[in-house]
Each structure stands twice: as structure tokens, then as C-alpha cells.
Specification:
Largest sheet: none
CATH topology: Na+/H+ antiporter like fold
Structural class: mainly alpha
CATH architecture: Up-down Bundle
Radius of gyration: 21 Å
Number of helices: 19
Helix content: over 70%
CATH class: Mainly Alpha
Length: 412
Amino acid sequence: MTAESTAHFILTVGILLATAKAFGAAARKVGQPPVVGEIIAGIVVGLGPIREVVLPPSVVPSVQALATIAVALFVFTVGFDLDPALLEARKRTTLGVAAGAMILPMLGGVAVALLLTAHYAVRSQVGFVLFMGIAMSVTAIPVLARIITDRGISRLPVATIALAAAAVGDLASWLGFAAVAVISGFGNQWRVSLLPVYFLVLIAVARPLLRRWLRSVSRRATAPPELTPLVVAGLLVSCAATEWLGVQYIIGAFAFGAAIPRAGVERARAWTGDGVHRAAALMLPLYFVVAGSKVDLAGVGGAGWWIVGLLMVVAVLTKGVGGYAGARLSGLPHGIAVPLSVLMNVRGLTEIVMLSAGLELHLIDGRIYSIMVLMALVTTAMAGPLLRVTLGPTADRHTLQRDQSLRLARGG
């Protein structure tokens, strides 16, 4: 890069980060997760005249490379934060809610995709249909956790069940995405066949080595400065490995995060999580601005807006009904099943990441990408207001916790 292009790149990153943070703060002031504002910032930046000034073609590859690192850090934290103990606490309920909140939206996504495949499938009709089903079934743990924290309901049964079910759903979604990429014929097929071998190496070789190293780190009084850089280096190696295998670097990031051991390395885990979460929080807004800038509302076209409406209705209804039915069939009472179905409708960050990956693999085109991003924004933005309606005011939180515990005992 020349001195001029380097200066332009640095200035662009600064402007994008500042814009993302400003829009994110504005979204939070009106009761929305910051990601809603960050995506809107990207849509604004992507508008023709503004894009030419803020995000010219000469700096796009460098910015996208930086955004790729940001999303790898984020997906690592999703795998890293998966807590088996949370899943074990209410196994039957968790699996029931997760199944309901995934199966019905997946079927709805497949049904809509079958209507659209003749005009919107890019390279593989099978890949398009399956990907749409997976994308419609996503629930975003990070945004879900933020909404739960902001609402002050983290100790309520509905919150713990929602987080556990979303964790199961996230795991299933990423495995499903990897399967779709393989079925659609992307990447070298002989390399893809080595994916189970790679997972085995992570579990049988990398995990014990990580445990031994993190145990020694945990005996120290303070976090060693090389801890986070070495973990990030391992994360990037894992991303490169799965990318070479033909199943997207995102799978490698998720798998490496899930492979970090838990027992006996609590102090090192806390230091690692703090470091990577800080790095992801700093850089992730850049990714969402870049993702938002790819949204082309003009490209949706007049006929495309009925597809937007159809996807909105299908997304909301299938998630809501599926989550509610899964909760009720698992023995949960109506008073918990309703807000639980609202929480499972949050798509946010995870949806955007998956859509961007699908766009990169040409499973979807720019029109469907734009439509699905709008759907993710609306369903995420709806969660807060709907939760206020279903849970009521936050003032009497202790009474609400007691009532939900009683309902859970009677219903389960």
C-alpha cells in the first residue's frame, strides 16, 4: 500500500468505527440493542454518494479483511461461552424449546425458499433452499444476553431457559451451515472429508494441550501478556484450517472457542475471555457497518417488498409459535412460554454473520441478503417492546421471579 492509500484506509476505519458507535449508542437510548444501530449505520454508509466518500472501492478489500478478523473473534466467543452446565440444568426443557424454535422456522424458511428458488437461487438451488431454512432458524445468543441483562431478568427462569435453548440452537445452526456448504459442493470435496479428522484433532490433541498450558497459566498471580495473543493465534490457525477444508473460517472459530477447556483453568479462562471479548467488542461494530453497507434497498425492487413482508411474517410467526409450542410440550406453563417465544425471536448478530457467510459462498445473492438483513433487524428490534408487554414493568422484579418459579414448579 502507498502512503496515501494507507492514510485513507486508517481514516476510513476510524470514521466507520465512530459512526457505528454513534448509531449504536442512539439505538440503545431508544431501548434497542446496539447492533440495530450499527447495521443501520452501515446501510446509511452504503448509500451511493456517501459510500463514494466514506467507503471507496480502493479501501474495501483492506476493511473487509479487518472485518473478517473481527467476526472470527466474535464467533470464537460464541463457542467459548457455551456452558454445558447451563444445558444440563433443564435438559428436557432446553431441548424442547430449542427444537420448537428451530424446526418450525426452518420449515418456514424452506417453504418460502421453494417459492423463490427459480428467481433468486445463485449457484445451487438445493444450497439456497437449505441455507434459507438454516438462516430462518437462528437465535442470537449475544443480543439475547444483552436484552436479558438490560431488562434485569437474568435470574428469571425464562432467561436461563432462553439462553440454554439458544446455545443449543447456535450449535445446531453452525453445524447445519457447514453441512449446507458441503452438500452444495463448495470447496474441494476430498478436503471436506477431512473435517471430522480436524474436529478429532481439536478434541483429542489440541484440547489436552490447551488444558495443560492454561493450568500453568492459572497458577500465576496475574495474566501473562502473551495469553490473549497466543489464543488469538490458535483461533486464526483454526480458521485457516477449516477455510482450507472448504467449510468457512467461521466454523473453525466456533470449534476452537468450544474446544477451550473449562475445568481446572477458571482463572486462565476468565483472563482469556476478557481479552478476546474486549477485542471483539472493539472491532465488531466495523464488521456490522461493512455488512450493512452491502444492503441495497434499491436492488430489492418493487416486487421485492412483498418478499420482505412475507419473510417478516413467516419469521416472526414460525419462531413465536415454534418456541411457544416447544415450551408447552416440554411442560412449561403459559406465563413462561409466551415471553420465552419472544426471546427466541431475536436473530441479531448471529443472523447477520451467517447471511454474510452465505453471500460470500454465493448461496444467496445481494437481493435476498438485503431482504434477510431487514428481517433480522425488525425481529431483533421487536424483542424489547414485546418483552415489556409479556413480562410487564421491571419494577417488581422479585415478585416476577417468585411467580415464574412457582409457575415452573406447577407446570413442570
